[in-house]
Amino acid sequence: MFQITLQYFPIDFDVAFLRIKQQYVHFTHYKIAFYVHVTFSVFSLFAGFTQFSKKIGTEYTKVHKVIGWVYIASVLLFAAPSGLIIGYYANGGFWSQLAFCLLAIGWFWFTLKAFLSIKQGDYQKHQIFMIRSFALTLSAITLRLWKYLIVLVFQPRPMDVYQVVAWLGWVLNLLIAEIIIIKYIKK
User: Fold this and answer.
1) For a Cys-Cys bond, which of 58, 82, 90, 184 suits 36, CB 3.0-4.6 Å?
2) What is the b/e burial string over 5-36, where b = at least 16 CB atoms within 10 angstroms of the residue's CB?
3) Which of 133, 132, 122 is nearest to 178 (CA)?
4) Half-sphere exposure of 66 (CA within 13 A, CB side)
5) Exposed / middle / buried, residue 132 (Cβ in 10 Å: 0-12, 13-18, 19+)
């Protein structure tokens, strides 16, 4: 994901994914939202991966808190709101746009609930909402994996792929998160 993000820097509006978004790159708000999203989504991914380490969470609580703040701030202030803006312009039409906008709203909501839960001292609720939030963070990876597999196996039209992966990239992640929550957290 870091390498994917690096291809957009230095700032270039005619590279990779942005090549198929030329009808929107003249919108200042789209350009800003896109660059904010790709930058802070990477912070969210890196920070999120460390947060589920029991060793860091119990032995290095200050590190866990600092990295947690990076995650929360990245998602709530930058990645989710900018994701909502670019989701509005998603490829694949209404159903893809709906999927990406719901993803951004869910990501924001679960992260906010995780933050509010830890502020109230409810560690189990915090853990549950963080699992859901990170499941949505991981959609950046799973969407690309699904896209690769679907194109490899079925060779569909590009916009048809977007309509499918827009949903598969995060809905399946949430289902797996719920299984993890039921099996390991809510005992």
Assistant:
1) 82
2) beebeeeebeeeebeebeebeeeeebbebbbb
3) 132
4) 5
5) buried
Give per-residue pLDDT as tens, 136-167: 999 999 998 999 999 999 988 878 888 999 99
The residue behind tokens 């853990």 is 127
Integer Cα distance of 67 and 74 in angstroms: 10
Q: Which of these, 49, 46, 177, 38, lies nearest to 106 by C-alpha position?
A: 177
Q: Catalogue the long-range contacts made by 31-36 (C-beta closer than 8 Å, 24 or more residues apart).
A: 32/82, 33/81, 33/82, 33/85, 33/86, 34/8, 34/82, 34/86, 35/8, 35/11, 36/78, 36/79, 36/82
pLDDT classification of 68: cutoffs 50, 70, 90: very high
- Supply the pTM of this predicted model: 0.92
- Cα–Cα distance, 36 to 126 (Å, whole number): 26
Residue found by looking up tokens 């029991």 in the block: 54
Q: Taking a C-beta distance cutoff of 8 angstroms, is the pair 107, 79 a contact?
A: yes
